[in-house]
DNA sequence: GACATCATGTAAGTAGTTACATGATTCT
DNA sequence: AGAATCATGTAACTACTTACATGATGTC
């Protein structure tokens, strides 16, 4: 698999980045669909360098803070392109702890189930609200983010997908809550 | 975390099961939201036994095939109940390799993007069709699966959620494909 | 008799998280 | 001066996958 490898190669296609920069991207919208901790990123950068997919130069921040700025090599670009155009089967399982609990709902009373599902609904609505703010921000800062030729199209894709995912979760939760409350 | 622990405890709440039986459940609808390979299940069963959450008796299948039938202990039931009613924060990241590729769409030509998204759409539609078949099966075999008091309600929940997830994915893919094709 | 399925385990390796460890820079 | 953020690394551990290994049962 080694998907983190491709996540890093993909992020580097626009220019040089430090390990810290890569980590920051995973805290933004991309983090809705992929992320990694710095303790996983730094060793992966070392490995990708050894494999010849990326190289780095050492830059100085301020007077002595050293940071490594990584860039894609030709080999790295080809490796990325091969992965991007490859058609994978869709995964059988997308793990969701809340849905695992839902499967065991017969172990709960109606009141307990109502509480659990209501709590989930509240949290999903909060998240939707955050995503809607990000969406409005993107659409006001970028004129044509929803156009294939825009450099913001990838950003637009992950944001709209995350928005739809949350809206879909909320509407399902509301439907199920109605069934839970039905005498 | 140890979510597999709770998945096993939850499956055992209805009666005794072998490791193989647990593995079979992960290949059915529950597998849409949680699964584990047998190489992870058997050691976990051993651990849960040592911790006193489950016990087993040895049963004979045929004339000499031994299998271990596991049941919940009182401690196991309490452990399960505590997890089931606990309200967790929603995860920041739900990993999706296709969406990671989507984020990097600016590295693809319009034709490549069209191919990638069309392939995903075809696969999602096939999966939706499978899930619809399972849904019709459930609804004909069980009169009131959509009622809180039905023993099939948990099954109904995972199936309807998986169905909605795929429908949502499909409609988003169709919207984006229209944008990709737009000159 | 062959093949699919039932049944259980371990070994080795990869992926990912949490904790340990350090130090510089920027902003208030 | 203190706090938040920038910046990089390793160690220990947990979670998960793939491969190795074996044997019985049921069905055609």
From TrEMBL, chains A, B:
InterPro entries: Tscrpt_reg_PadR_C (IPR018309), Tscrpt_reg_PadR_N (IPR005149), WH-like_DNA-bd_sf (IPR036388), WH_DNA-bd_sf (IPR036390). Pfam families: PadR (PF03551), Vir_act_alpha_C (PF10400). Residues 94-180 form the Transcription regulator PadR C-terminal domain. Residues 8-81 form the Transcription regulator PadR N-terminal domain. It comes from the Bacteria. Transmembrane segments: none annotated. This is PadR family transcriptional regulator. It comes from Bacillus siamensis.
